[in-house]
């Protein structure tokens, strides 16, 4: 069984200020003009080479960000917003930069109806966006 | 179980071993095969027990009392013991906290009338009546984490739950109220009757001082509806809690096998 850690890959590699600025600009542009996403990836590839980053991993994180963004845009669900913010960090966009990205503010009354029914405990009053959709200790995993 | 629920279960078992000691799993044949197919049987250093749930033949409606397996396992497990749900991760040692305590549960719950029905509305077996000593005012206890020190109390609590669940086949309007009465409200009622104070890990579920517990709880519903959310949750769980298991070869192998893309 392998013992080499893979967790470093998850924990956020340090990148240059230039890379961070590029990623903010890249996300901002692709959010406003989705048609630019693929062409922007050419520049991303060059940045990744300079920063010695695994391009495939960065691309995977970006694709996941945009898929979750598409889900978010359907409902403006506050919990999805929090997780979108987490995913942005995997794309080298920190919380402060994320908060100025151009999309609609979360709707704090938008939890899915099915969530109430599936809760082990049905304290509907406890299920809100303020508690990350019914998760206890969300702050311990960065929410 | 989806990838997020399985990863939570993996971390639940391994983090418990890291901070609190040995852990076993009670499951049935279906659960065993599910885990075997994913090479997860080694997660529980105390072993995986299928005998208890496969051989106990109680007259319990498994659809209504879907968590009765927990109570059957608790009945067979010698006290002192902890019962831990697979969607709950304990992030630090609890030895000092549990020392000299008789009962510790996760947190108190509100007497929400939709989940915790009055005795007049609960469905009961034929010729059943609630004992006069039941105090219906005490707050239920969330038992996703439950420590019981005393064998006699454990037997008393499980006995009361069995008395309510056996031959109780009437269908409620929903599938929550009967189970949470038998498992969570009865625990508090029994403790109240025995004059045992219940200690809680958290004063309320969303306590900002919580440094101990991550519990998926109602969030499971949302995860099940969105695979992208599952993916981000898993990455974040590995990033934050997984770092504690960097030297754990089982966890490393699991991450490499099931999350190769990151």
User: How many helical elements of chain A?
Assistant: 6
Share of residues in strands of chain B: 5-15%
| Overall geometry of chain B | globular
Overall pLDDT level of chain B: 96
* Percent of sequence in beta strands of chain A: under 5%
Instruction: Determine the oligomeric state from the structure.
Output: heterodimer
Tell me about the biggest sheet of chain B?
4 strands, mixed
Shape descriptor of chain A: globular
What is the helical fraction of chain B, as a range of percent?
40-55%
Number of helical elements of chain B:
10
Tally of individual domains of chain B: 2
Taking pLDDT < 50 over at least 5 consecutive residues as the criterion, the unreliable ranges of chain B are none
Please provide a brief summary of the model:
The complex is a heterodimer of chains A (143) and B (262). By secondary structure, chain A is mainly α. Chain A has 6 helices and no strands.
Explain what this protein looks like in three dimensions.
The complex is a heterodimer of chains A (143) and B (262). Chain A has 143 residues and is mainly alpha-helical. Chain A has 6 helices and no strands. In chain A, helix 3 (55-75) runs antiparallel to helix 4. The longest helix of chain A is centred in the middle third of the chain and has 21 residues, at 55-75. Chain A is globular, with a radius of gyration of 17 Å. Mean pLDDT of chain A is 81; it is low at 112-129. With 262 residues, chain B is of the alpha/beta class. In chain B, 41% of the residues lie in helices and 12% in strands. In chain B, helix 4 packs antiparallel against helix 6 (151-165) and helix 6 packs antiparallel against helix 7. The longest helix of chain B is centred in the N-terminal third of the chain and has 18 residues, at 3-20. Classes of the chains: A mainly alpha (143), B alpha/beta (262).
